[in-house]
Amino acid sequence: MTALESSIEAVRTAAAAADRMKAVDIAAYDVSDLVGITDCMLLASATNERQVLAVAEEIEKDLYTKGGKLQPRGREGIQEAQWILLDYGDFIVHVMHEEARDFYHLERLWRDCPRIDLELPDADAAGADAA
């Protein structure tokens, strides 16, 4: 089973919003085979609490305005702004302070899951530099 195309498109919208707000280390995984309650996980990092909050707010705004009025079913971590989780049901967004992301290293949970191509403009340049 693979993630719904609508979930992948929404994750790409969220990733573009995070990228526009200068989030770093943006990655998404198709976890539909591993996790029964959601299709995709999106991770993005920011350098301070203010930026974590700004990235999460921009993602929410874009998913509402560009993603068919999507609204999160749940929001966690807004007060502390170290790790904000936005639960959209079919996908979950994690916006994390860099230190929290390094500490929890969520990628290890999904390392066997396929990565989703987010189609971000800088991703092509980074891939060309690595080659």
In helices, the fraction of residues equals 25-40%
The first-level CATH class is given as Alpha Beta
Number of helices: 4
User: In the CATH hierarchy, what is the architecture at level 2?
Assistant: 2-Layer Sandwich
**Tally of distinct domains:** 1
Major sheet: arrangement of strands:
1-2-5-4-3
Major beta sheet summary: 5 strands, mixed
Q: How many individual β-strands? A: 5
Unreliable segments (pLDDT under 50, ≥5 consecutive)? 124-131
Distance between the termini: 31 Å
Q: Label the structural class.
A: alpha+beta
Radius of gyration, whole Å:
14 Å
Provide keyphrases for this structure.
4 helices, disordered C terminus, 131 residues, globular, Beta Polymerase, domain 2, alpha+beta
Give the structure's gist in a few sentences.
With 131 residues, the protein is α+β, with helices and mostly antiparallel strands.
Task: Characterise the protein shown here.
With 131 residues, this protein is an alpha+beta fold. It has one domain: Beta Polymerase, domain 2 (2-Layer Sandwich), CATH 3.30.460.10. Helices cover 38% and strands 22% of the residues. It has four helices and five strands. It has helices at residues 5-20, 49-65, 98-104, 121-130, and strands at 24-30, 40-46, 74-76, 83-87, 91-97. Strands 1-2-5-4-3 form a five-stranded mixed β-sheet. Strand 3 and strand 4 form a beta hairpin. Helix 1 packs across helix 2. The longest helix has 17 residues, at 49-65. It starts with a helix and ends with a helix.
Secondary structure blueprint with pairings:
Elements (H helix, E strand, L loop, with lengths): L4 H16 L3 E7 L9 E7 L2 H17 L8 E3 L6 E5 L3 E7 H7 L16 H10 L1
Parallel strand pairs: 2-5
Antiparallel strand pairs: 1-2, 3-4, 4-5
